[in-house]
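User: Last request for today: this protein with flavin-adenine dinucleotide, please.
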Amino acid sequence: MTFINVIIVGAGPAGIGIASLLSKTDIDYIVLEKKEVGSSFISWPENMEMITPSFPSNAFGQMDLNAVAPLTSPAFAFGKEHLTGIEYAKYLSKVEALNEVEVETHTEVQSVEKQGNSWIIQTNKGKLICRYLIWAAGEFSNPQMKGIAGAEYCIHSSAIERPSNLEGDDFIIIGGYESGVQMGLWLIENGKKVTIINPTKVNDLQTSDPSKVLSPYTLEKYKKLKQSANYTEIIGAVENVLKSENNYCVQLEDNRLIKSKQKPICATGFSLVKKPIEQLITLRDDGLPILNEETDELLNQRNIYLAGPSVRHGNHIFCFIYKFRQRFGVIVEDILNKELYNVNDIVSLVKIWKYNGLYLSDLSCCDEECLC
Ligand SMILES: Cc1cc2nc3c(=O)[nH]c(=O)nc-3n(C[C@H](O)[C@H](O)[C@H](O)COP(=O)(O)OP(=O)(O)OC[C@H]3O[C@@H](n4cnc5c(N)ncnc54)[C@H](O)[C@@H]3O)c2cc1C
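Assistant: Here's the final one, the structure of the complex with flavin-adenine dinucleotide:
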C-alpha cells in the first residue's frame, strides 16, 4: 500500500486551493479526483455564471474574490467579472499548472477507515494510506430535493445542462434562491412563463450576508424577473408533487395546487458529498458536520479535515469561495505544526496566507453586518 502524508479528496476550488498551499512546503500530498479538475463547474447548466464578481485587486492585498491561490485571478485570466462554469474550471487548471499541483484524476474515493494513526483510503484504483485526510468533495454531486414527496417527477436545476433544450412554455421552479432566480430570468428572457414557489418572500431577510439572501448580482436579475408579466411568485411550502396524464401538479401544505405541463424544476440546493466519511461525522442540528473551531477537523476525530462550502462554525456560513478559502491556511498550518515544521517558516507562510485572504483564525470578525 502506498503511503502519502496528505490526501486531499476533490479537485474543485477547495482541493486545488489547499494543494496550492501545500505545494509551497515539502510535505508530500496528492489530490484524488473522481472525474477531472473542476468537474462540478464543467457540469453547470450552460446559462449559469459565477455570482460573486471577479476583479484583479490582488496587488492591493485583496485577492480576487474567486481566486483560490496567491498571484492568480479569474478576472485577469478571462478578462471578465462573471465567469461561466467552463471558464472557472479552466482557471482551476491554470492554478494546478502554475503550482504544479499533484492531481490523480479519475480516482474515486470509495471508503475511508481509521487504522492506528493513519487513514486507509480505498479508491477504484486500489488502496492508499495517509496520515492526514482533507475532505474537499464539495456538494454539487449531491443535489437536494429533501422533504418533497414525488420529487421523482421533478428535475433538479443542476441536471439541466442545456436550458435551451427545455420544451414547453410554462415552468414551475421550486426554490427562490440563486439558482432558481437565475434559471427563472433565463426562461422569461427566452419567452417562457415562470412561477417560483418559495416558503417565504424571495429575499425577505434583512442582512448583508449573501449566504442568507440573494447576492447583489442575482438581486438585479430578480428585479427584472418581477417586472415581467410572465412571472408569478407563490409563497408556500411544497408538500407533494403529483403527475396526471397531462400535467404535473405541485401541492402546497395549505392544499393549493399549481399545475404545469412541464416537470417542475427543483432549485433546492445541494448538500455535502459525505458517504465515504459519513460514519466519522457528528452532525449539527442543520445536518452539517460539527468541526473543531481551531483546525476544521471533524469533531472527535484527529487529522481528518473538512474544506469547502459545508464548513460552518456557529452561525458563520462559509459557503462562498471567498469565505471557505480563508480556512485553507488554518488546515495547512495545523498539519505543518503536527509535522514539526520549522516555526519561522510557518510564521512566514501564515503571513503570506493572511495577506491573500487565505487564513482566518479569529471568527469573531465575521459577525459584522454592513450598516449602509
Ligand atoms: C450555478 C452555480 C453558481 C455558483 N456560483 C458561485 C459563485 O459565484 N461564487 C462562489 O463562491 N460559489 C459559487 N457557487 C458554489 C461553488 O460552486 C461551490 O461552493 C464550490 O464549487 C465548492 O468547491 P469545492 O471544491 O468544495 O467542491 P467542488 O467544486 O464540487 O469540487 C469537488 C470535487 O470533488 C470530486 N469528488 C466528489 N466525491 C469524490 C470522491 N468520492 N472521490 C474523489 N473525488 C470526489 C468531484 O468530482 C469534484 O470535482 C455556485 C454554484 C453553482 C451550482
